[in-house]
Amino acid sequence: MIWHILGAGAIGSLFAIRLQQAGSTVQLLLRQPQTEDYYQLHLHKGKDTQAYLLPWQPVTQATAISHLLIATKAPDTLTALDSLASRVQPNADIVLLQNGMGQHEAVCRAFPQARIWAAVTTAGVWRPDANTLIQVSEGHTEIGPLQNTPTNMPKGWNTMTPPPAETADIYLSLWRKLAINCAINPLTARYRCRNGELVSDPQRRAVLLQLCHEIEQVTQALGLSLFDTSLADRVVHIAEQTAQNRSSMLTDLLNQRPTEIDYITGYLCQQAQQLNIHLPLNEQLLTEIKQLSVQTHRAKLGEN
Ligand SMILES: NC(=O)C1=CN([C@@H]2O[C@H](COP(=O)(O)OP(=O)(O)OC[C@H]3O[C@@H](n4cnc5c(N)ncnc54)[C@H](OP(=O)(O)O)[C@@H]3O)[C@@H](O)[C@H]2O)C=CC1
Ligand SMILES: CC(C)(CO)C(=O)C(=O)O
Asked: Which residue intervals define the domain Ketopantoate reductase N-terminal in the entry (predicted)?
């Protein structure tokens, strides 16, 4: 049994290492050809550094796939899957480990017979270069069924360290993460600030609270009870806890990469529309961040 890793970036590589450490065989699916048979990764955790060797294959030449971990950015999911769909066995085990929502339904539709799980993690990791991983936090991971799944976790996940928590309601976990990302990510991109500055600056804090109020209108209309406290209290707490972080959306913009806005605020706005709820601030942010993404993409292509 081999876990193929589609989206062997920061979080995909971290979970490839965790699966390998738990005794599974892994195979990274890469776009860039490598000179060696093994992909070398140095994982830094605080002062500790460990080297790992991970087997890889070109994504276009993957062998038959029975176990697939998808950890691309949300907008890349379907394009990445296109290049190997014919090699995914009909009854494969597939885990989606990504932020955002919307792509999960699309993958379930594309592989109706597959056993599909979603995982949500608060682990934090980034890749300063192709062979280095810096783990900022070990995080907490939840995994749960989306389609055709037996009650137990997919093979290799129950022996992983730290162990993921199994949940019967991964949809709720996805919404918890989505709500937090909807609040923090677009605002840090708008103000080009670190997470903590959304709460330390009184004007930004007021906008953040207004945004949380809008998001909660949707989650309440869907009958979701996300946290013991209000969303605003939860978001303020997380922004304070991660005060020095640049959110993933701001980081993508600064690196002139596409953002996940369509799968975060975009998904929320789609849900609101279906519920006949108007979200002026979220809609404004969706437009703003999409425009910023286009501008940074053009700048990257040298069109400005
Ligand atoms: N990093 C983190 O700490 C966390 C990230 N997440 C979420 O996890 C997901 C992944 O994030 P992250 O790991 O940071 O992102 P990265 O950009 O580091 O990794 C994404 C990877 O996907 C690969 N990819 C994209 N398109 C294809 C394709 N067509 N075929 C094969 N590979 C492809 C990229 O390959 P290439 O290298 O060739 O560009 C890249 O290595 C996102 O949804 C993010 O929000 C969630 C929690 C924490
Ligand atoms: C929780 C938060 C906002 C931490 O930075 C995050 O998940 C992200 O940046 O995508």
From this structure: 3-147
CATH of the domain at 145: 3.40.50.720
Q: Do residues 20 and 160 share a domain?
A: yes
Q: Is 120 in the pocket of ligand 2 (CB under 6 A)?
A: no
Q: What is the Cα 15 distance to its own chain's centre?
A: 12
Handedness of CA 285, 287, 292, 297 (dihedral sign): positive
Q: Is 102 in the pocket of ligand 1 (CB under 6 A)?
A: no
pLDDT in tens, 125-172: 999 999 999 999 999 999 999 999 877 899 999 999 999 999 999 999
pLDDT tens-place string over residues 88-100: 999 999 999 999 9
CATH number at residue 211: 1.10.1040.10
Q: How far is CA 139 from CA 158, 166, 228, in A?
A: 16, 15, 20
- Considering the entire predicted model, what is its pTM? 0.97
Q: Is 177 a residue of the active site?
A: yes
Which structural domain range is residue 219 located in? 172-300
